[in-house]
Structure formats: structure tokens, C-alpha cells
Amino acid sequence: MKGSVLAVVLVIVFIVIVAGIYYISTSNGTTIGGTTSSTTSSVVGSSGGVLITSDNVTKTAISGTWQISLKNTGSDAVTSITVYLYTPTRAFICSGAATSDGLFFKNCPASASGNPLPPNATVTGSSTGAGPMSATVGTAYPVDVHLAFASGQTSWLNSTVTARSG
Q1: Which of 45, 68, 115, 133 has the smallest number of Cβ neighbours within 10 A?
Q2: pLDDT of 146 higher than 90
Q3: Contact present, 146 and 74 (Cβ < 8 Å)
Q4: Is pLDDT of 65 > 70?
Q5: pLDDT at 21
Q6: Using CA atoms, how far apart are residues 24 and 41, in angstroms rounded to an integer?
Q7: What is the CATH number of the domain that holds 140?
Q8: Residue 58 — very low, low, confident or very high, per pLDDT cuts 50/70/90?
Q9: How far is residue 37's CA from residue 141's CA, in Å, rounded to a whole number?
Q10: Tally of domains in the chain
Q11: Predicted pLDDT at 29
């Protein structure tokens, strides 16, 4: 008798968990099985010749990834970069001392001295976890890039990225 009651309770718990996962995964535009959502990015100008060449938030039912690329088309080297994604849980990534260090959370705070983005170079980076996972498919989120240049100037580059169902 106790064994059959326990079996029924376990089956009910399993059904509730599966129903909850299905509800959560379909309510934000993703599907069970890891279908990803893609994004588009719109850049509001450039800053000191630095452009956002790609900006993507990829979201599955169980994870999220933010990837961004910056290109320096100007003549002044960039000495530090901090990039913010304003999803419900904010994400940010920073430059290391060299282009090969990329843009990653582990580099934060950004190195004050280095050459992470010399003229005619591109730097890429990514972040996984709570920030990109908190995005809602179909919602536009601000992206702000803080740049410090070898000349001593600093500036901001502003953009938006919109998560879309894939």
C-alpha cells in the first residue's frame, strides 16, 4: 500500500515538473529542446571610429549567451573597453590588455593600460548566464560601450539588441 501511494505521488510530482518546464519554455518564445532565438542590433552612430559589427543574444530554454564584436575604423588606439547589456539582470564584459584577451567578464574591471583594440582591428567577446538568460524574446535591450582611447579621450557608443524567436 505504501509503495503504491509513493509511486502515485512521484508520478504526480513528475507531471507537475514537466508541465512547469513546458509552460516556462513556451511562455518566453523558446521551445523545449534548445531552439535558439536570434537578435538584431541597431547602432546609434559610432564613437571615435569604433563600430559594433555584430551583437547577438542567443537564448534557449536552459541557457543564454551574449556575443558582441567591435571594430576600430579610426586612427586612435582603444586602451580599455567595458560593454553593458541592460537585460533584467544586467550583464557586462571588459577588455583585457590585448586584442587576443577578447571581451569577457573575467577581464573586469577593464585594464587601464593596454591595446585591446588598435586601429583596423576587431575584438569579440561573450557572456553566458543570468544576464542574457533574463532576456525576453521580442524585447529590445540597450547596449552601452564605454571606450577609453590612447589620446586620453573617453566616449560612449550606444546600441540596442532585440531578441527574436528562432
Answers
A1: 45
A2: yes
A3: no
A4: yes
A5: 40
A6: 26
A7: 2.60.40.1940
A8: confident
A9: 14
A10: 2
A11: 35
Average pLDDT of the segment spanning 16-30: 38
* 6 and 86 housed in the same domain: no
User: Within this chain, do residues 10 and 48 fall inside the same structural domain, yes or no?
Assistant: no
- Which stretches of 88-140 are DSSP H helices? 130-133
User: From the CA atom positions of the chain, what is the Rg in Å?
Assistant: 21
Write out the E strands in 20-72. 38-44, 50-59, 64-72
Same domain, 53 and 15: no
Which domain does 25 fall in, by range?
A: 1-32
> CA 63, CA 34: separation in Å to the nearest integer?
9
pLDDT (average), residues 37-51 = 58
Is 17 found in the same domain as 84? no
